[in-house]
Automatic annotation (TrEMBL):
Keywords: Disulfide bond, Membrane, Signal, Transmembrane, Transmembrane helix, Transport. Residues 28-206 form the MRH domain. GO terms for cellular component: endosome membrane; Golgi membrane; late endosome. It is found in: Endomembrane system. Transmembrane segments: none annotated. This is MRH domain-containing protein. GO terms for biological process: vacuolar transport. It comes from Gomphillus americanus. It comes from the Eukaryota. InterPro entries: Man6P_isomerase_rcpt-bd_dom_sf (IPR009011), MRH_dom (IPR044865).
Length: 224
């Protein structure tokens, strides 16, 4: 009886230590755990630039994701958890040193480029919805349409931001490779905030690589 009690105490103490250690570990970028402890890994949606000498992978994307803005008159180029891989220049109201960190942008009918926000890889849950935010884009609030909004006036401190809501969709895509359907939902009247919806199998949840998981109570009993 005593040995069983000691074993239980040892297991509980060890598992608590594992849990505390895991809580202190930074999460892998572009991953999140739901309130119900279901792991989500959307890093497969990040489009990465091909390095010099790298061979092309079959089915790999060579451009960032795009959402058609049917009502806004512009199309939106977006990457997930990473900067866009397109070479963008002369971004309205954004310092040149930050262009390489822009994760979403659009080009107006007159050829001006506007940022919707900087790279960010931390997801949050809003109720049951998985959400990713980008902030600190081009100045906003001074125009009448999505095409011509900001003139880079230093007095205008408001900046564009956007939110992507990810929805589980296991039926519309090939299961062999990450895929996503991105759509423009709308913008605020002052064109400072933009909303998008992304449907992807990766938003259905699952497990992150087993090597990144802590040893649970069941596994510990098995080891012992």
């Amino acid at each position: 009886m005593k040995s069983g009690w000691l074993l239980t105490c040892f297991v509980l103490t060890t598992c608590s230590a594992f849990a505390a250690e895991e809580a202190l570990k930074p999460r892998k970028p572009c991953t999140v755990q739901s309130p119900k402890h279901l792991d989500f890994d959307l890093s497969g949606l990040s489009v990465l630039p091909k390095t010099e000498g790298q061979k092309s992978t079959k089915g790999a994307r060579n451009e960032s994701w795009m959402a058609i803005g049917y009502d806004s008159g512009v199309n939106y180029t977006i990457n997930i958890c990473a900067p866009v891989i397109e070479d963008i220049k002369d971004v309205e109201g954004v310092d040149e040193s930050k262009w390489q960190n822009i994760s979403a942008f659009y080009t107006s009918e007159s050829g001006k480029t506007f940022s919707l926000g900087m790279q960010h890889s931390e997801f949050v849950f809003r109720g049951r919805k998985l959400v990713l935010h980008y902030q600190d884009g081009s100045p906003c609030g001074g125009g009448n349409s999505a095409s011509e909004l900001a003139d880079g006036d230093s007095k205008n401190t408001r900046r564009k931001s956007m939110m992507i809501s990810f929805l589980c969709d296991q039926d519309s895509f090939e299961s062999s490779k990450p895929n996503m359907a991105l759509s423009f939902v709308g913008a605020s009247p002052d064109f400072c905030h933009y909303g998008f919806e992304a449907r992807t199998p990766l938003a259905c949840g699952g497990s992150i690589a087993p090597t990144e998981q802590a040893v649970g109570p069941g596994s510990l009993f098995g080891i012992m």
